[in-house]
Amino acid sequence: MAVQPEIDPATGRTTTGHEWDGIKELNSPLPKWWLYIFYATIVWSIGYWVVYPAWPLVTNYTKGAFGYSSRQEVVRDLDALKALRAERSTALASTPLEDITKNPTLLTFALAQGKAAFGDNCAPCHGLGAAGSRGFPNLRDDSWLWGGGIQDIHQTIAYGIRNGDDRARQGNMPPLGGPNGVLKTDEIVTVANYVLSMSGQTTRPGADLAKGKELFIANCSACHGEDGRGNRDLGAPNLTGRNWVYGSDEKTIIETITLGRGGVMPGWTTRLDETTVKALAVYVHALGGGQ
Questions:
Q1: Which terminus of the chain has fewer Cβ atoms in its 10 Å neighbourhood, N or C?
Q2: Do 83 and 115 reside in the same domain of the chain?
Q3: Which domain holds residue 191?
């Protein structure tokens, strides 16, 4: 004899016969409208597999009846953008850098393209706002190791710094400490404090600044100059200011003198077209160049 399903007195629904800790499960079927939508999505997915690329194969993938490719869509969009920009891009490529800033229409175009390129390629090091960070220069001030003229900036962007390219910016800070260094530990501390004094910072109590100056002139002035104002031809920074790429505290200066510095920047002529490099130079120059 068949067992009659139990009726829940509160809802009037039958139960499934399942019970957990006195709680019985109601037999509540899904709404038909929900089931119909679910079945429709199954049919839709099958059609999607047929029409669009969907299934990975060993060395390829199913192309789909429409032959659609998101990569091709991107290529078409980029080609359309290039066609839209073609006239101004050609003008930008053929116009000398100094003349771009004199043409409001071309300058606006260059700044817009340069800003986009900066965000894609330069922001990871210099920051989206170009304010830099430890080891990466702030591009918004007037302190430039190799000059802030638009041609100087273009040269740096195009070929980079100390990256193996003969056209790149050369010159690095050699280590003056360590086993083979020309300065002893106490001499490095003395020089570091003299460097601190050059920028108007507080030195260590009892620091022999006269001795520090003597050591500085003997070992550092060839690049930084006796007055410490640097040499842009060598990329030697001005030590009398307050713009320090690696930091201006005593510990950092001692580290710099002991171990040297030789940061690397890639050249962008092998990664970006010349028009984009020019646009970048115009954009960076507008941020803080000109000195």
A1: N
A2: yes
A3: 185-259
